[in-house]
Design a protein that fits this description.
Elements lengths: L17 H15 L8 H6 L6 H10 L5 H5 L12 H16 L5 H28 L14 H29 L7 H13 L22 H28 L12 H26 L10 H23 L6 H18 L6 H21 L2
Length: about 375
């Protein structure tokens, strides 16, 4: 197949600027259209003729890096066009997270030095919690080591302030991509797509090419689902425990067959399994199709999230022994680190991608109406 339309940029000239390079490759894809049925990115590409920066930001965050387009492409190296759309969109996606993050600069720092930053914060916060735990407690279970009032004073701001920072970042994203008022139908379509992780199968239901190159696999979708639903179960466990404490007057500790534990224990297991699976799959995947220069931040996020789940499970298993105090300090240190880094780690990508799915659902609805 040959390209028979004029491109806005020289198709053979690679750019060091992530957005410009994404524009070059997207324009070639728009002219070729061989991958039109692959995933949500390609129908979105074909709706445009000229791509503004906001269009590229939307396409980059709509991409789930399944890599099917790369292995189907006839214009990859050694062709002079040297297309690598998964890498180009991953670069533009990371650039958008770092540029739109608030306060600025923190996301870029984490992506470049994530491993060292996570290790330092977890260790520092663990020492802080160990010092607090040395003071007399005021309750049973973990509250004998760290009072409920101290936990609320530390974790309430650590949860709410990152959410506020994310809200500012997503508002910036929404304005950049041209988002308007949403309908219930937009939300329903985006939630359905996110819940099934539809685009991790290339949108065609045959699997992802992430770790097996030309062969298809659903492994990446499964480990992402384990992490996503594990996190949601853990969050639901914490939310239920909060309601039991403040509304029903039922204070912790809770038994194994209580609702917080029935939600939290499976959630922790799913987190550990999902994160271990992600690490294994990343070891098999071609690094040249991912985000350049962000490996430290990506690995640090997965290890941190997996450690939060694992330390929570171990802490529950050793409750009441001499290991409770040190493990509680380490677990709370990792949880606090996770919360504070959420707007700047790869955890933010879930929020951006869901917002991109909302924008895509909205765009399809508006174009259908004419």
């Amino acid at each position: 197949m040959s390209l028979d339309v004029s491109l806005q940029t020289d198709p053979g000239v690679l750019s060091d600027d992530p957005m410009q390079e994404a524009r070059r490759q997207v324009e070639i894809c728009n002219a070729c259209r061989y991958c039109e049925g692959f995933c949500a990115v390609f129908p979105a590409i074909t709706r445009e003729k000229v791509f503004a920066d906001g269009d590229l930001t939307q396409l980059a965050n709509l991409c789930h890096n399944c890599r099917g387009c790369y292995y189907a492409c006839q214009y990859t190296a050694p062709h002079e066009f040297d297309l690598n759309l998964p890498r180009a969109l991953a670069s533009a996606r990371a650039e958008s997270w770092e540029r739109l993050a608030w306060p600025g600069g923190l996301a870029k720092t984490f992506q470049a030095k994530g491993g060292a930053l996570v290790a330092a914060l977890v260790a520092g916060f663990a020492i802080m919690f160990a010092a607090i735990a040395a003071l007399p407690g005021e309750g049973e279970g973990f509250y004998a080591w760290l009072s409920h009032s101290a936990m609320v004073a530390i974790f309430a701001p650590a949860f709410l302030l990152p959410l506020a920072a994310l809200a500012v970042s997503l508002r910036r994203y929404w304005r950049e991509v041209g988002g308007t008022w949403l309908t219930l139908a937009d939300w329903r379509e985006a939630v359905g797509s996110a819940g099934r992780l539809k685009n991790l199968s290339g949108g065609q239901g045959q699997g992802c090419n992430f770790e097996k190159a030309e062969r298809f696999s659903d492994a990446r979708r499964h480990v992402h689902q384990a992490v996503m639903y594990g996190f949601m179960l853990c969050f639901a466990s914490t939310s239920v425990a909060t309601l039991l404490h403040y509304v029903a007057g039922m204070e912790a500790p809770y038994g194994l067959f209580s609702l917080p534990k029935l939600l939290g224990v499976p959630g922790g297991l799913l987190l550990v399994v999902g994160c271990a699976g992600m690490i294994a799959l990343k070891g098999k995947a071609d690094p040249d199709l991912g985000t350049p220069g962000r490996a430290s931040g990506e690995r640090a996020f997965i290890w941190l999230l997996g450690f939060v789940g694992l330390s929570g499970l171990v802490l529950y298993a050793v409750r009441g022994t001499g290991l409770t105090g040190p493990l509680l300090a380490l677990h709370l240190g990792s949880v606090l680190t996770f919360f504070l880094l959420t707007p700047y780690s790869k955890m933010a990508h879930g929020f951006y991608r869901f917002t991109a799915l909302l924008r895509e659902a909205q765009e399809k609805r508006l174009r259908a109406k004419g």
